[in-house]
Amino acid sequence: MTSFVALLRAVNVGGTGKLPMADLKAMAEAAGLQRVSTYIASGNLLFHSPLGEADVKALIEARLADHAGRPVGVMVRTAAEMAAVLAANPFAHEAPNRTVAIFLDGPPPADAIAKARLRRDEAIALGRREIYVHYGEGMGQSKLVIPAAAAGTARNMNTVAKLAELAAIP
After folding, report:
1. Which residues contact residue 48 at a Cβ distance below 8 angstroms, ignoring those fewer than 6 apart?
2. What is the rounded distance in angstroms from the CA atom of residue 43 to the CA atom of residue 145?
3. Which residues have CB under 8 Å from 10's CB, separation 6+?
4. pLDDT digit string (tens) for 54-100?
5. Which domains does the chain have, with CATH numbers?
6. Looking at residues 111-117, what average pLDDT do you find?
7. CA distance readout (Å), 92 to 38, 84, 157
8. What are the DSSP E strand ranges found in 50-104?
């Protein structure tokens, strides 16, 4: 049985994709996922499953599409991978609420940083299946566009740390 974290894209952020976390939890339990819980209202699902990553991703995305009537992107990481994302944060010395990991389905393209636009004081680094960004002035002031991140979903490092902690509970 593997412990997973599923990160939903564009759910309960900026008035888009409303999905009560109680509904998400019930949906996951009905799909056969075990020890299901959510963390904050931005689409963070923790669960255990004997299935592999690709299978749980497909299962959750299918349930969400049925519920929402449109595709909802889901990035899935094991508990160990979530801990590794936290440990690999190249901006660990910076404020965690101004640093995000943008989770992707696959490795970011090598030119992801070069193709970023409207960059001011943001620092960008590539991870295994993530793009890390430190927003010096905060996200609210940033106009940064990272085309490689368009299909991903971001979580600040406070959230990443909490999800890693919760996912590690046996």
Report:
1. 1, 2, 3, 4, 33, 34, 35
2. 22
3. 16, 17, 72, 73, 153
4. 999 999 999 999 888 888 899 999 999 999 999 999 999 999 999 99
5. 2-78 (3.30.70.1280), 81-167 (3.30.70)
6. 98
7. 25, 13, 9
8. 74-78, 99-103
For 145, residues 6+ apart whose C-beta sits below 8 A from its C-beta are 116, 117, 118
Q: Match 């689409």 to its residue by tokens.
A: 43
Number of H-type helices and E-type strands within the chain: 4, 8
Q: What is the pLDDT of residue 17?
A: 66
Mean pLDDT of 21-40: 94
Could you give the CA distance from residue 162 to residue 39 in angstroms, rounded to a whole number?
9
